[in-house]
Amino acid sequence: MHAPQLVERVRKGDRRALARAITLVENGAEELSAIMAGLAPGTGRARVVGFTGSPGVGKSTTTNAVVRAVRAKGLTVAVLAVDPSSPFTGGALLGDRVRMQEHATDPGVYIRSMANRGHLGGLSWATPHALRVLDAAGFDVILVETVGVGQAEVEIAGRADTTVVLSAPGMGDAVQAAKAGVLEVADVFAVNKADRDGARVTLRELRQMVAMKDRADDEWKPPIVMTVAAEDEGVAELWERVEEHFAHLEATGGLAVRRRARARDEVQAIVLERLRSRLGGLGEETGLDALAREVAEGRSDPYAAAEVLLEELGA
Amino acid sequence: MHAPQLVERVRKGDRRALARAITLVENGAEELSAIMAGLAPGTGRARVVGFTGSPGVGKSTTTNAVVRAVRAKGLTVAVLAVDPSSPFTGGALLGDRVRMQEHATDPGVYIRSMANRGHLGGLSWATPHALRVLDAAGFDVILVETVGVGQAEVEIAGRADTTVVLSAPGMGDAVQAAKAGVLEVADVFAVNKADRDGARVTLRELRQMVAMKDRADDEWKPPIVMTVAAEDEGVAELWERVEEHFAHLEATGGLAVRRRARARDEVQAIVLERLRSRLGGLGEETGLDALAREVAEGRSDPYAAAEVLLEELGA
């Protein structure tokens, strides 16, 4: 399929074309620049909602329940799972995978995992491209699921229009881990498995953390929702909070700011990837490998080597 | 403290100088290029061992026990914790933190956490710098602890001379998550909490995965060690396997290959950071923000915008 045909079919929401386009993204294919140029005019419509949290808090169960809530509103929805432990990516227990299948025959739902671990910056580079494809395909809502532990993964979740951070009771160190960077990106908190012991403690801890942050009067204060996603409890309320946050972004102009920031990251990632591949090329011909050897053996230092390469790049 | 003084004192292993140098790394300070140039001649001696695995497998307990085993061999050791959930970084339970303190008065042990989440690529950029400082300070062994979930974190662990991947029984989906990329970087496996139910199952799963991979006859086959790190069980054996792997690398020339790859990454990371900051600068003056706006609004696409910037960079 040539780029113009693929673009045409993606824009119609054709499933095979979507799958093909995202595979091209995963492979970093050359056609991408033509495809993205073709898709650009149709983008900017979808609401992008990130879901993140430590392994075990129930991200996939929650995502699945949210898909149901969004469909109940008559909206179409795509799920992009960049979490390696997600059942979407084939990483988790069979029970979860079966649960996902309830959406398999719904034409208003599309689920796709991203397996790209190929190169440094891989996820940061590939995720915005995949979002762009799903956006152009006309989905009303895109849910991005990432594990809330890695640096790249947290950054990806934080670049959504609305970022939902999930916790669960009884995960002492996981909640602590979350503090390290995940909480800063939260627009909405969900305490999942809220029927378990310790849910009130988790709620209280989150409340304290939310309260501690200084905010202007008109600034968004992240609400906290208690959910039992496996039983669909609290999920409609969670989605309401997400919609409120989106409305707040629209009303304050924050939406355009976030989307420009996302586009900025995307452009930078492409520029840096192009320069990186040029570096690799230079290396083979003119000596990145030789420079690396000198650095490894203590005969040079990485900054001096970097200066040599920058000169060779002409930058 | 000026760069030459700092370099002098780092090379003597002065604790305050070490702490200061790594803080400069975390802040991406300008002095770094002078400091790294000064430290270069003393580097390349330390053995770098990475420890990674999902949250909850006992990474910190194992690292702590390994510190003891390494000290018992008369070697000095530095720990660099880039795991946000590590007790070294203040993320975990008090009990763990107390346990670490056994090394607080040992002049042959230095423990440092990395809190840098500041910018995209932060950890990938900062970690090799911090390793370089600890290497120049003369430690025989450097243990790098990262959580085995994020893309950047797994890559960091995989760039060690020897990478130890930890599992624990009864962590179904965590072990599954590990499969997504962590296993590929393993030189040695440890099944921690091996006194718990399910340890044999985990061992069998790992054995199968190790067996499934095609290897040349002289290629290293990752051994699997059963440990109960909290009781010091199996830890001496774990360290023996690490030493055997290191000896194998030395004998086959693999060590130099790995270290050149690490240096290559390091040089590339510096080049890309410099270009990235130049991009930011260009943006303010000549229009990255304007380009990002066009992309966000669907009036341009990220590749077209990237081309404009590459031309402006002169690259």
UniProtKB/TrEMBL annotation, chains A, B:
NCBIfam families: lao. CDD domains: MMAA-like. The keyword Hydrolase applies. Keywords: Chaperone, GTP-binding, Hydrolase, Nucleotide-binding. The keyword Nucleotide-binding applies. Transmembrane segments: none annotated. This is Methylmalonyl Co-A mutase-associated GTPase MeaB. Belongs to the SIMIBI class G3E GTPase family. ArgK/MeaB subfamily. The gene is meaB. Gene3D superfamilies: 1.20.5.170, P-loop containing nucleotide triphosphate hydrolases. It comes from the Bacteria. InterPro entries: GTPase/Isobutyryl-CoA_mutase, GTPase_ArgK, P-loop_NTPase.
